[in-house]
Amino acid sequence: MSDYIKENLNKDGVDRRGFLKCMAWAGTGTLCVLQGGVLKSFALGDVTRQKIGDLKGDLSFVQISDSHIGFDKAANADVTATLREAIAKVNALPTPPSFVLHTGDLTHLSKPEEFDTLAESLKSLKTDQIFYVPGEHDVLNDNGAMFRERFGRNAMGDGWYSFEKNGAHFIGLVNVVNLKAGGLGNLGAEQLAWLQKDVAKLKSSTPIVVFGHIPLWAVYPQWGWGTDDSEQALSYLKRFGSVTVLNGHIHQTMQKVEGNITFHTAASTAFPQPQPGQAASPGPMKVPDDKLRQVLGITDVNFVQGKHTLAIVDSTLA
Amino acid sequence: MKSKKWILSAVLTVAAAVAVSTRPGLTVKAADQMGPAAVKIDNFSFGPQTLTVAPGTTVTWTNNDDVPHTVVSDDKAFKSKALDTDDKFSYTFDKPGTYNYFCSVHPKMTAKVVVK
Asked: B106 and B66: one domain?
């Protein structure tokens, strides 16, 4: 079963109708596969049987996000258990990821024992490396000092860094410290200057993957779902042929394409949050217990050298 | 004589007491006139968003939300540590003025205390 872009009304390549249909099916365990602007959906059970040829690319990695270790309220009484289920899901992927990105809110209250539990849980993740960026819940009392000590040793400033993998350039950004009253996420002048320098010498054909906690596009500013100075950051990346921005923070999957830039947010492994404007506030959303695992998930990313966009596959825990 | 001195000191004491009791803000009844000065944090907002209190009042914030919040004044006059559900933070406002504050974790949450 597949859906192609039937109505490209805004001419921005976003298959809204197909995407909305896909999101509605997410509760039944559906995979939405975006490949070169075309949305294909598969029932979860079919994934391993379906030889999604393009997915077996030269580079395969996974994004998990918002594990919130330490949270124990109604929306999910055992976030460590659902994190372990997410890890099991990653370990069961047909193509094992070369590495895993955690896009922040590792913990709920920045407590040492929460970081301990997170680190301990991730030991069972079958991958070579894990890269982290902090969420606002990880930097509560010390502007991120403990986070950087444990998960950002090679990072600069508040925790930003970059690395190469199979010809692609990965950039970890921090937009959750030094937040200003009434503002959104914030990258800051020092990080922006570093970013500009970091990509200056790269060829425009280098695939770029940026990952940071708060979305770098204005998903819903009223709820703080955006970054004040992201426009400047994105201006340094406009010349590249393929840019993918991976974020967390909003605890639901969302996607937007703007020219050569694909924005994507991941689900949480802990608890869902309401869709923009659908509740009084963006806090943890309680769903019936038997539906919880259908709104938590992981993101599997694969790309083949030479192709334009990455194949981004969201899958739920159930 | 002893009795005259006694009367004089008694009169002076009474006079002083009268003087003190008629100066506004220094009466012993000040605390009774104030209700509890409280701000409730819930649903990613501070309630009330504007709280007006007299100088010398201690304001107590209570987090009733199921995510942590902080109480940080724009000009760094006060700054709570992260408040989990049911945690409290108190600050005594001695000087008159308008104190804008926000939650440093969710900076869209803003409010103020007016002291006058």
From this structure: yes
The Cα–Cα gap between B15 and A121 comes to 74
User: Does any domain span residue A272?
Assistant: yes
pTM: 0.80
Same domain, B12 and B52: no
Express each pLDDT in A248-264 by its tens digit: 999 999 989 888 888 99
Q: Please, which residues have CB within 8 angstroms of residue A51's CB and are 6 or more apart in sequence?
A: none
Q: A72-103: per-residue pLDDT in tens?
A: 999 999 999 999 999 999 999 888 899 999 99
Q: A79-91 vs A112-122: helix axis angle to the nearest 10?
A: 30
Whether A181 sits inside 8 A of B44 (CB atoms) is no
User: Which chain B positions have a beta carbon within 8 Å of A140's beta carbon?
Assistant: 68, 70, 81-82, 105
Q: Write out the E strands in B1-116.
A: 37-42, 45-47, 50-53, 57-63, 72-73, 88-93, 97-102, 110-115
Q: Which residue of A has its CA nearest to B105?
A: A136
Beta carbons of B108 and A282 less than 8 Å apart = no
- pLDDT band (50, 70, 90) for residue A7: very low
pLDDT tens track for A112-148: 999 999 999 999 999 999 999 999 999 998 999 999 9
**3-class state of residue B93 by DSSP:** strand
> Is the domain of B17 the same as that of B41?
no
* Chain B residues touching A224 at Cβ < 8 A: 106-108
Chain B, nearest residue to A280 by Cα:
B43
pLDDT of res. A304: 64
A223, A280, A284: residue with CB nearest B108: A223
Record: contact B105-A137, CB cut-off 8 A: yes
Does residue A1 sit within a domain? no
Q: Which residues of A touch B70 (CB under 8 A)?
A: 140
The mean predicted confidence, pLDDT, of chain A is 84
Query: How many domains is chain A built from?
Result: 1
Which of B85, B102, B105 faces A181 most closely, judged by CB atoms?
B102
Residue A184 lies in a domain: yes
**Residue that is written with structure tokens 């000087």 in the block:** B95
Q: At B102, which CATH number? A: 2.60.40.420
Could you give the CA distance from residue B39 to residue B51 in angstroms, rounded to a whole number?
A: 8
Q: Please report residues of A whose CB lies closer than 8 A to that of B68.
A: 108-109, 137, 140
B67 vs A contacts (CB less than 8 Å)? 108, 283-284
Q: Please report the ipTM that was assigned to this predicted complex.
A: 0.78
Task: Print the domain residue range for B62.
Answer: 34-115
* pLDDT at residue B114 is higher than 80: yes
What domain range is A311 assigned to? 55-316
